[in-house]
Design brief:
Blueprint (H helix, E strand, L loop, with lengths): L5 H38 L3 H44 L1 H7 L2 H7 L4 E5 L5 E6 L8 H14 L2 H6 L1 E7 L4 E9 L8 E8 L2 H11 L2 E6 L2 H5 L3 E6 L2 E7 L3 E8 L8 E8 L1 H51 L16 H28 L9 H13 L4 E8 L2 H8 L1 H16 L7 E7 L2 E7 L4 H15 L1 E5 L2 E5 L1 E8 L6 H17 L5 E3 L5 H15 L3 E10 L4 E13 L2 E3 L1 H11 L2 H21 L6 E5 L2 H4 L4 H11 L7 E6 H4 L3 H13 L3 E7 L6 H6 L4 E4 L11 H16 L3 E4 L5 H9 L4 E2 L8 E2 H10 L1
Parallel strand pairs: 16-17, 19-21, 21-22, 22-23, 23-24, 24-25, 25-26
Antiparallel strand pairs: 1-2, 1-5, 3-4, 4-5, 6-10, 7-8, 8-9, 9-10, 11-13, 11-16, 12-13, 14-15, 18-19, 18-26, 18-27, 19-20
Helix pairs in contact: 1-9, 2-3, 12-13, 16-17
């Protein structure tokens, strides 16, 4: 069923509401059930305490049976003493008239009665019910009875009674010594009543309990569900089952037979009654809950659901944009849905207002009112569909970032607006449109035949127009621009590629000093190809470190080297000027600098092992490499790993790498020097070089650029400049290294003007590690 269908919405909402009520009912049932279980457990908790008392009553009954058997053993023992005398004096017939013991025995509730000698060997079986005197259990009973009778306390009184256990059965045994005049040895009356099923049935009938006698089982004591209770001077083991309670207690026995336990199983009447009553109550509550939920569901369906469906239908129309004039009618109810209806009407009113501006916002840059990238892409697609040629001019303002960062975004935004105003004058020609695609980047599209002369004239006119002084808040700023041009369809039929090619051409203009334009050509893709290959080169270890020796004038020795990276490609060796700028742009420079660092430290380790403790290697550190959060820890870790002192490593930095954030860099360089690593200021005499930086930066050595040494042997002014720079550096307690020395005459002059160290092709070009080691050994 479709979402737009009213019936479909009713069904979906009804299902959700029904699901909520079913969930509530289920949760309520679970809670009621849990509560009922809790009440039942509390109500029946006392059952566990009553069990031992009932078991003890059974034990008392059994003890009564033991006393009875003991009394019978005494009685018949004494009778046998009397009958023996009467038999001797008057004869058996007269004795039977006086005392008929046989009749007494027959009537007595005795299972087995024996007459045994002093060694408890059977002399006579007075009464025997399935009794085998040769049975091991019978012999075991008699042996235990003998040992018990021989105990001091029993020997004196001549009788005992109690329970004797065997492997097969427990028995109630009564023993009485028969004292006769004619017998040299004592005889004994032994009564044995087995505690068997018949005995237990009688006890169960008398006590009204369910009793069993079981042999000792370790599981009784080890079962975690069994609770031990000590009452009436004995230990009871209580196990609470779902429908019953089991009570175990040891059957006190004489002799050394195995232990037996009395087990009483009692029904949980309190629990069963409570369960029945509470279950009925919970059932009634659950039925009432279901009825209430059904009634509430019907109410919501009638009073709420219809109004929600109406709101949803109106919102759908507004969402689809078919009717932005629609409004919800207020209903008679004063509730949350009524408030929602009013709020939605307010929102619809605002949407009507915003809708009028949506198309403009979606297609224009709000700062400059120029079209944005989306609209530009639509325009280019339209030109392509109409098979019209056009030229795409990519414009990027030079040094705009410095103005934006130093003077603030407000000034930057105002400057962008003024630049846009200058460019808008070209839109008076219907063949030209202008777009701002972001930051300080503008795109100009000029449709028409791509004549190179006309395109160059047009590009020159834009550069001239943009190259002017702009006044903002009583301040003047000079702006220039770099431009790249791509042509359709000459360079590509794809708008993404056209944008990329014009961007590459613009980058070449900026790289060559700015305030220029370049028309794209295939050679410019070389830098893009290099950029794409950079990451694979790092992964495949295609880089190699070369080392150029540094010569110390004062001691005429090679004291160190500068590490310079090279890229070995299939087409030959690539030098840093071809890939380092791109690596800085992509961020891959961090991995390259890390590779050079490790190789340089490794070389130091080798030469320290060869006895050159003062040997050092300097590496060029990029801004991104320096600005890692844990830079100091990284350096220390690598040096420690290869056991190289910090004095063996020098870091070379250039002023253009640190000028963006001088405060941070100064702090970092101080920390670097603090751990013992020397800091060199490289390429001094180019770029932003000034003695103000030398004075403020925490450095140890200044490296004078080779450009200042050209013709120094012939140009007196050049010599004076270099000499002055060396002198000033020495006054600031800084050492000086002159780079790019290629002639002996230059070496001699540098010696005269007190230069400290020299580096250049006069001594050696940069060498791979193996050749450098050979050079150093032979120098």
């Amino acid at each position: 069923m479709k979402n737009s269908s009213k019936g479909g919405y009713i069904i979906k909402l009804m299902r959700k509401i029904a699901l909520i009520f079913i969930t509530v009912t289920i949760i309520s049932s679970i809670l009621y059930y849990a509560l009922g279980k809790k009440i039942i457990n509390v109500a029946s908790s006392g059952e566990l305490d009553r069990g031992p008392g009932r078991t003890n009553a059974v034990i008392k009954q059994i003890e009564g049976e033991i006393k009875k058997i003991t009394s019978q053993a005494r009685e018949f023992g004494e009778n046998f003493e009397i009958t023996d005398k009467i038999d001797n004096e008057y004869g058996v017939e007269e004795r039977k008239r006086i005392i008929n013991i046989e009749k007494k025995i027959e009537k007595a509730s005795i299972t087995n009665m024996l007459i045994v000698n002093n060694n408890f060997e059977v002399n006579d079986i007075i009464k025997g019910t399935n009794l085998d005197i040769n049975n091991i259990d019978t012999q075991d009973i008699l042996n235990q009875a003998k040992d018990i009778m021989n105990k001091k306390e029993n020997k004196g009184k001549g009788f005992f009674g109690g329970v004797i256990t065997t492997k097969e059965l427990s028995n109630i045994v009564g023993v009485k010594r028969i004292n006769t005049e004619n017998s040299k040895d004592n005889t004994y009356t032994v009564i044995i009543n087995p505690i068997n099923e018949v005995f237990m049935e009688n006890i169960n009938e008398i006590t009204g309990r369910n009793i069993e006698i079981i042999k000792d089982n370790e599981s009784i004591k080890n079962d975690k569900k069994i609770k031990k209770v000590t009452l009436y001077g004995r230990d009871f083991y209580c196990k609470l089952n779902e429908e019953s309670i089991d009570i175990f207690t040891k059957f006190e026995s004489l002799g050394n037979g195995p232990e037996y336990y009395i087990k009483l199983r009692d029904d949980r009447q309190v629990r069963n009654n409570a369960t029945k009553n509470i279950s009925t109550l919970i059932g009634i509550i659950m039925i009432l809950t279901i009825i209430c939920n059904v009634l509430l569901y019907i109410f919501i369906k009638i009073k709420v659901l219809a109004r929600i469906i109406n709101i949803n239908n109106v919102v759908n129309k507004v969402t689809k944009g078919t009717d932005l004039e629609i409004e919800l009618q207020n209903d008679i109810y004063n509730d949350e849905i009524s408030v929602l209806t009013g709020d939605l009407n307010k929102m619809f009113g605002r949407l009507k207002k915003y809708a009028n501006n949506l198309e403009y916002i979606g297609s224009h840059d709000l700062l400059t009112s120029l079209i944005n990238r989306n609209k530009l892409t639509e325009y280019i697609s339209e030109l392509k569909n109409n098979n019209e040629e056009f030229a795409l001019f990519f414009i990027d303002l030079d040094n705009f970032k410095n103005i934006n960062d130093t003077l603030g975004h407000n000034v930057g935004d105002e400057l962008l607006c003024q630049v846009a105003k200058e460019l808008k004058e070209y839109t008076e020609n219907e063949n030209v449109i202008i777009s701002r695609i972001g930051g300080d980047e503008f795109i100009v599209v000029r449709k028409g035949k791509n004549n190179n002369d006309e395109i160059e004239r047009f590009a020159n006119s834009m550069l001239i127009k943009l190259n002017k002084i702009y006044s903002i808040k009583n301040y003047s700023y000079e702006i220039k621009a770099s431009m790249g041009i791509s042509l359709y369809p000459q360079h590509s039929a794809d708008e993404v590629s056209l944008m990329q090619y014009s961007d590459i051409a613009m980058y070449h203009s900026k790289k060559n000093g700015g305030n220029k334009y370049n028309i794209f050509n295939k050679k410019m893709l070389e830098s893009l190809e290099i950029e794409n290959k950079l990451k694979n080169a790092i992964r495949n270890e295609e880089f190699e470190v070369y080392y150029q020796p540094i010569y110390c004038i004062s001691n005429n020795k090679i004291i160190g080297a500068e590490a310079l990276v090279r890229w070995k490609t299939e087409d030959g060796m690539l030098y840093p000027d071809k890939f380092i700028p791109l690596a800085k742009k992509t961020g891959d420079i961090v991995d390259i600098d890390m590779f050079v660092l490790r190789q340089a430290i490794s070389l130091c380790r080798e030469w320290i092992d060869k006895g050159k403790d003062q040997f050092y290697v300097s590496i060029n550190a990029s801004k991104r490499f320096l600005k890692q959060n844990n830079f100091i820890e990284i350096i220390e870790k690598e040096l420690k790993y290869q056991n190289v002192p910090t004095s063996a490593l020098k870091l070379e930095i250039t002023e253009d790498e640190i000028i963006d954030d001088a405060e941070y860099t100064e702090k970092l360089l101080k920390e670097i020097r603090k751990i013992g690593i020397g800091v060199y200021l490289d390429d001094f005499g180019t770029g932003y070089s000034s003695f103000n930086h030398i004075k403020t930066l925490p450095i140890d050595v200044v490296k004078i650029d080779r450009s200042l040494l050209i013709n120094i042997e012939e140009d007196i002014e050049a010599k004076s400049i270099v000499e002055t720079m060396i002198s000033l550096c020495h006054k600031l307690k800084l050492k000086v290294v002159c780079e790019g020395v290629e002639e002996l005459a230059q070496v001699e002059i540098l010696k005269q003007i007190n230069c400290d160290d020299i580096q250049g092709y006069y001594f050696s070009k940069p060498l791979p590690k193996q050749l450098f080691n050979k050079f150093l050994e032979e120098f």
